[in-house]
Write a structure and sequence with these properties.
Largest sheet: 6 strands, parallel
Shape: globular
Number of strands: 6
Helix content: 25-40%
Distance between the termini: 20 Å
Radius of gyration: 16 Å
Strand content: 15-25%
Bound molecules: ligand FNR
Structural class: alpha/beta
Length: 191
Amino acid sequence: MSEPILILGIAGSLRSQSYNKAVLRAARELLPADTTLDIFDLGGIPPFNQDQELAPPAPVVELKRRIRAADAILFATPEYNYSMPGVLKNAIDWASRPYGDSAWNGKPVALVSASVGMFGGVRAQYHLRQCFVFLNMDAVLQPELAIADAASKFDSQGKLTHEPTRQLLAQLLQKLVAKARAAKSPQRVAA
Ligand code: FNR
């Protein structure tokens, strides 16, 4: 048995029937051994207000606690108007503040997007990856998983049924967990 790894999954959609929320549920079925995936719903996070960053609202305190408790982050996001949804950027901004106290710093991260459109949300992914540079998050580069035409890849219960996509998601999770293990035990990797 290897050291347990905890991933925090965050969806960029608040929609009850969200495909991206469904991606996080599918990820739970595809985790490598000794890994768990906890899901944080962004529904309770208020709009960012820098006046409150030194004493943030309770849901933000909880978000930062959950990020810090996790070994890695998995974002599953839609693309809104060629970028990431405001609710996701809002949460990223809250948890990055105040300056010098970002909960994201150094976290291994992977991302996946799902869209009913034909590009799968890949443009939102590139905007997110841009944020990872300043946030100092260690992103998995490959595989890139942008789930296009999502309506054909999930069943009516929101289960991811498209086998090639399930395999890519499993690969992505393996890469993320490998990064998380390396970050936890750097001496083992260097040896
Ligand atoms: C969208 N959608 C969308 N899709 C896309 O591929 N590129 C885009 O730029 C946009 N823009 C966009 C803006 C807004 C405001 C909405 C509400 C939707 C469609 C989007 O991919 C689709 O609604 C997904 O199903 C949303 O993801 P969830 O909620 O299913 O996770």
